[in-house]
Amino acid sequence: MNILVIGAGVLGLVTAWNLNEDGHDVTIVDKIGKYAGASHRSFAWINANHKLPESYHRLNAAGVEAHESLQKEFAAQGTWFHQRGCILSDSTSDAQENYTARVQESNEFGYPVETVDRARLLELEPGIAWPTDTALFFPKDGHLDNFTFGDLIDDLLAKAGVDVGVREVENVETTSSSAEVTFADGGVESFDQVVIAAGAESGPIAARSGLTLPVASLDSPGPRTHSLLGITAPTEVALSRVIISDRINVRPRSDGSMFVQVPPVEHRTEEGESTELLEEVRTVMEESLQELFETAIPVDEVVFSGRSFPEDGVSIVGYLDDAHRIYSLVTHSGMTLAALLGRLVANELDGGKEELLEDFRPSRFRHGIVPESSDSFIGKQ
Ligand SMILES: Cc1cc2nc3c(=O)[nH]c(=O)nc-3n(C[C@H](O)[C@H](O)[C@H](O)COP(=O)(O)OP(=O)(O)OC[C@H]3O[C@@H](n4cnc5c(N)ncnc54)[C@H](O)[C@@H]3O)c2cc1C
């Protein structure tokens, strides 16, 4: 089949690569270029941690496993998936209750978790001045070098003769035999199938095509759709894995720097992006890093980062139209799910039906949008 993938973020790239592997004639376009959206400013914690409901947990757990397999398959190309686990530390007065609930939930789902004491915390992360005596350790979690991963898939595509074209899609119309795509440059081209993987802008593309795809708009910023992501200078301070807490989230990057988020300032995304805000947040991040590592770590940059957030919080994967020519692929757990969804979507475009995706079909919105539950899970990604 002749298939167009709209968007060269992590999801579009992996999907295009899988479709090409299956022998399809694939075109991939991005209005700006590879990794221009959320994929290039993602914390990229790979996890199935407190992903509810259970079917969403199962999808994310399979996502973690898909990264494990892909990393093994392409080990000679480098390391991008670091499965060193995640430590969750809660210093609030509800910590004990929260830990108990999380351990119970993880046990019910069969997702490994360990309650760790101070000695074990120091063994795992000796560079941290731990604010709590106990924490939870999730050994299956990890983090992804998002750029290394994107480059790997882009290289595999290029070797197969598929390059990302810089082109903006205006809309898609279906006929009985094809999907007619109109580009912003005025061109019109015909494809057998189209995959909309344009992140936060997938909703507007669908709307211009007369279809419904409820993805939160980035026009009214807030903690649901945006995050303040800090990037530190490279540092000698030891950090091996993802740390999630009510005060600060950190994870190592391959060049020795770290990604940082400070949950108590996330609400300030409501103010919208400004130089003053980014400067103030940079100061708060440096103070929080000083507290956590008891040493100064400069923050080089703070990014006001928009997510691709389905209105009800869980992935939207499946055909949008009755003729089955326009397929949607939007999720805010895109780093965790990329390796898995790329394969499952290709299987479905080949005519298969993936049971893991059944709860995430766009058809659920025919009955309206059930908003996401107001669960204030720390570090929710
Ligand atoms: C701060 C932050 C932290 C995150 N943390 C995590 C995490 O810890 N774990 C996790 O799993 N996920 C995380 N995510 C989410 C994850 O990064 C995203 O789900 C993922 O990157 C989405 O990838 P995508 O390919 O769908 O979209 P994007 O990366 O946004 O790519 C969409 C692409 O479509 C292009 N496009 C848009 N409109 C058009 C058009 N009309 N025509 C052509 N091209 C178009 C854009 O230019 C863009 O390049 C985080 C996101 C953010 C912002």
TrEMBL record:
<dbReference type="InterPro" id="IPR006076">
    <property type="entry name" value="FAD-dep_OxRdtase"/>
</dbReference>
<keyword id="KW-0560">Oxidoreductase</keyword>
<dbReference type="InterPro" id="IPR036188">
    <property type="entry name" value="FAD/NAD-bd_sf"/>
</dbReference>
<protein>
    <submittedName>
        <fullName>FAD-binding oxidoreductase</fullName>
    </submittedName>
</protein>
<dbReference type="Pfam" id="PF01266">
    <property type="entry name" value="DAO"/>
</dbReference>
<feature type="domain" description="FAD dependent oxidoreductase">
    <location>
        <begin position="3"/>
        <end position="347"/>
    </location>
</feature>
